[in-house]
Amino acid sequence: MLSAMGLAQANRWWIGLGAFGIILAVAFAANGKITAWVEGGHFRQMLDHETSKGLKLEGSYSPLSRVGLLGVRADGFTGTKGQKTIVSLDAHQISGWFNPLGMALHRWQMDDVHVQSGTVTLQETEANPGAKPPGMPWWGWFWPYRVHLEEVKVDDATALWQLGGKESGIYHAFLEITPNGHDFEYDARGGNFNTPLTPSLDLQHLHLLIRKPRLYCGELLLGDDSAHPEEQVRIHGDAGLQEDRSINLAVDLTSLNVSPWLPEKWRAHVLGYASGHFDYKSSGTGVETAQGQGHLSVAHGVLHELAPIRHYIALTGSPDPGDLALKVCETDVNWKEGAVAAENLQMECEGVFRLEGMIQVAKDQSLSGSLQLGITEPYLRWLPTARATIFTRQEGIYYFTTITLSGTLKQPREDLASRVLAQVEKSPSTELKLFFNQAGEWLDFR
Question: Global pTM?
Answer without folding.
Answer: 0.79
